[in-house]
Design goal:
alpha+beta, Nuclear Transport Factor 2, Chain: A, seven-stranded mixed beta sheet, 5 helices, 7 strands
């Protein structure tokens, strides 16, 4: 029997009510370590959603979506760029509009096995690499750029945002080399 049909059946309702009654009479008690583990897993899930929105914004050239992922007092440091660091939303936005996916339509891909997320309360260390594909919808597709984004994320008003970030080249491509710190 399908789960949906079982849940609608008399047996499913009986089992469900019994489970609710049992959990009310004998609540499970998670120790602090287990509770913190649940919080960290939830935070990581939210950070993965932030990371996905970042790449959706790049791939669709949606600067408004991109900027909604950054804290108001965020900074972005790009080694070798004489105007870096870019501090505040206006300066980060102005920089992004002059470079990469916001100048050239690209599909932004991420090697998920290299993503690092280390949550500490309302802050987290984050590392990812972006490999942007130019002419992605044509047979002439090519790797247009390989970059990293790494630094501190901050939870602000219930949402994870990029806060104190660093970006730069992730070249040459490597399975096991990380380009920051």
């Amino acid at each position: 029997m399908e789960r949906r049909k079982f849940c609608r059946s008399t047996a499913g309702i009986t089992v469900g009510i019994g489970g609710l009654a049992g959990s009310t009479l004998f609540p499970l008690r998670a120790d602090d370590h287990e509770l913190e583990s649940v919080r960290v897993r939830a935070a990581k899930g939210e950070i993965y959603e932030l990371q996905a929105a970042f790449h959706r914004a790049k791939s669709t050239q949606n600067i408004d979506l991109m900027m909604s992922q950054w804290a108001e007092d965020a900074s972005l440091t790009i080694p070798g760029n004489p105007q870096s660091p870019f501090v505040g939303l206006e300066k980060i936005r102005a920089f992004l509009l002059t470079t990469g996916s916001f100048v050239h339509l690209r599909l932004s891909l991420v090697p998920s096995f290299k993503i690092q997320i280390d949550v500490h309360g309302d802050e987290a260390f984050f590392y990812e690499e972006c490999h942007d594909i130019g002419d992605f919808n044509l047979p002439t597709r090519f790797i247009a750029s390989s970059t990293f984004l790494a630094g501190t994320l901050r939870k602000v008003d219930g949402a994870w945002l990029f806060w104190n970030m660093n970006g730069g080249s992730a070249s040459p491509l490597s399975v096991n080399h990380y380009y920051f710190p």
